[in-house]
Design a protein that fits this description.
Blueprint: E1 2-4, E2 19-22, E3 25-31, E4 34-35, E5 40-41, H1 46-63, E6 71-78, H2 84-95, E7 101-106, E8 116-123
Parallel strand pairs: 6-7
Antiparallel strand pairs: 1-2, 2-3, 3-8, 4-5, 6-8
């Protein structure tokens, strides 16, 4: 197994890695809307956070020579399912015509009181 470590996405905020590569799969940890340049949340609203989350996902993928088309599965965690439509538009724009498998779950709370978190699995 190989640990993923890049400055193209925020550093882990706990005892975990940004991702783990095993065989031809990379399991990326959930991304919050933290701007890696500032270490701060991109904004308080779900739109700002979702845009930053997907930039972070893209940064992780690029650090491994991959693109959004490499994602085979994602899981989206929302603090409020009422944000689903708005985040879905941003998600669709980020992935274009590519449609990885996905689950969406409403959670009671996310780290740093984030509004959205997305994790993904990519194929190398």
């Amino acid at each position: 197994m190989i640990h993923v470590k890049t400055d193209k996405a925020p550093a882990a905020i706990g005892p975990y890695s940004q991702g783990m590569r095993t065989g031809n799969l990379i399991f990326f940890s959930g991304q919050l809307g933290i701007d890696p340049a500032t270490g701060k949340m991109a904004g308080d609203d779900v739109k700002s956070q979702a845009n930053q989350v997907l930039k972070n996902v893209k940064g992780l993928l690029e650090s491994q020579g991959l693109t959004m088309n490499s994602v085979v599965k994602s899981t989206m965690f929302l603090a409020d399912m009422n944000d689903f439509k708005e985040v879905n538009v941003i998600y669709e724009a980020a992935f274009g015509a590519h449609r990885p498998a996905r689950s969406t779950i409403q959670v009671a709370r996310l780290p740093l009181d984030a509004r959205v978190e997305i994790e993904c699995i990519a194929e190398v």
